[in-house]
Amino acid sequence: MKRQRLAGIEKEISRVISSVLFSEIKNPNIRGLVSVTKVRVTEDLKFADTYFSIMPPIASEGQKPVEREKILEALEEVRGFFRKRIAEEINLRFVPEVRVKLDDSIEHAIHITKLLNDLKGS
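Structure tokens predicted for Ribosome-binding factor A (122 residues):
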């Protein structure tokens, strides 16, 4: 399949999953903490590797740190629901199986920025 067609499918899958995360998921471990950063579909459309980023919590008193394992488990639980909604909204012969992966690029960028600011302050 052409890369351009795959890119369009990836964009639509990302849109559907983002919409589901925003409006349909009730799990407090996920809601408001997770967003889709990218989707990569295999050429045979069997798998859709979906990368999620976890929003870092705003530092405040009494707030517990985000537990990545709990969020990953919660995302694994709803991936069948993601696939169902993709099938309902996108006209595809074969609906890919959603594979959940965590994307730590935002956390990495924050860490690098902090290191650069520390160097600048020295």
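The longest helix spans residues 68-89.
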